[in-house]
Known about the structure:
Elements: H1 6-9, H2 22-36, E1 44-48, H3 55-65, E2 69-73, H4 81-93, E3 102-106, H5 120-130, E4 135-139, H6 147-151, E5 154-157, H7 163-177, E6 180-181, H8 183-192, H9 197-208, E7 213-214, H10 229-239, H11 243-251, H12 257-271, H13 274-297, H14 303-315, H15 332-339, H16 341-358, H17 362-377, H18 380-390, H19 394-401, H20 408-438, H21 446-457, H22 466-469, H23 493-498, H24 514-524
Parallel strand pairs: 1-4, 1-5, 2-3, 3-4, 6-7
Helix pairs in contact: 4-5, 7-8, 7-9, 8-9, 10-11, 10-14, 11-14, 12-13, 12-14, 13-14, 16-17, 16-19, 17-19, 18-20, 19-20
Amino acid sequence: MAAVKWTEKYRPDTLAQVLGNGKAVDDLRAWATAWEQGAPITGAAILYGPAGTGKTSAALALAREFDWDIIEMNASDARTAGMIQKIAGPASRSMTFSGKLRLVVLDEADNLHGTADRGGAAAMLKLVRDTRQPVLLIANEYYEIEKPLRDAIKGIAFRSVRSTTIAQALREICKAEGVACDPDALMLIAERAGGDMRSGINDLQAAAEGSKELKLEDVATAERDVKSSIFKVLEVIFKGEKAREALQASYDLDESPEDLINWVDENLPLAYQGQDLWQGYEQLARADVFLGRVNRRQNYGMWRYAGFLMTGGVQSAKAARRHGYVAFRPPSRWRRMGQTRKARGVRDSAAKKVAHRCHVSISFARAELMDFTGMLLKDKKIAAPLAAELGLDAEEIALLLGSTPTTKKVQTIYEEAIKIRSAEEIEDIELAWHGTAQHALSHMPEAQAGVGLTGFAGVEISATSEHEAARPAPAKIETIPAEKPAERLTPVEPAVAAKPEGRKRGRPRRAKTEDEAAGKTATAAKPDAGSARKKQKSLFDF
Length: 542
């Protein structure tokens, strides 16, 4: 029997049991109380913060405390627009049989990216605007969620849990499990959890399960590389005195030099001023030169020089030791990249389609042909055929035109392009259907084609028995010479031509003349004009 995870066994049953985030719990309880009173503050709320801080536990505890029904969709579910509209949509708009409220929980709402979750963000926005039931979204990164969705919901922030609070929770679990624990061992586990309550409980279970006593030497967990530890490294870089300590602190990070230089660049103006700031940027620029050489030459040995310059070099740039609190912040460039992720995805998708039709690279199409394609789309006569040929959707058309997908012009081009593509698909199906029989034997060798034709038409079949030899031999049809493949008999018409015609009793069948046979064959050998393959259009044909 599999062991029960302590994180599930000791999950809080009420909001009061959620430790470490008192203000967030109070805000969540106030939001739920407003729903109970029939005057909700907002239709939906979002619980955001680092992993393991109790967001999901708080949502489940809320449903138990208020005796609400609950429906949950997490990252393992397909959260496409169709699934959200099919499951979460009706659940958020319909009442329960008991008359109780129903809590709809959408976990990991900040990870709606890629093909699997396409359309999920838009469906989620519609859901929170039209909901008649309380909806809770759970996310790690608040700014990874699109701004329209953030503006429509109430944000409740969960912070990392303090080590003393984690140690207190671990002590209660040890008491419930009957394990005598060393306070130093519990404090070591709590400190190495890095503010993650779930990780602390998992480490405690790994060290204490199956034993009656937990000692300091039984703790074998390593300190986790969490995002919050970057702030400790920045403290050492900007306020420390020894360059070696700053470099050594960067080794304990789970950050590449390309990421670390963005952190230092963002916070350097907050920590230094005047001449120190100028010297700090000088060291940072030299570090960036080495990173550029790494990218060009793929010589990752130069990372050591870049790492030393952006840590110890920046630290040595200050004239005197600095004190005081500095509110370090994550790189703003990452936030901007996250906000424009969808727009960049649409741009790359359109560039890929243009590059495929023009037989160029995607980078060349993105740099040189996007504006040219947008100019062509502004022409009303060729806009719809061009959009149909490239297979553009409404967002891609809007990007190339410098407009929005909801404008009438974009929607008109998109709808006409769909009609053109549908008509071309029907035409291709009809051509393929009519051309199947005619092309069945068109690629066979001459000898095989001749044998197949005579056998198929029933002509020149040799007798293999006395009974068959007694039958009157059918009239022989002269075939077209092999050196004229364009006039060769097709596998359908010759069969009809060589089929014995009905005749009266006792009257022999008249053999066909050479001219009649040749006329029949010439008629049958005419190629089907509709079966010719259409010439593939290029972007430059428009």
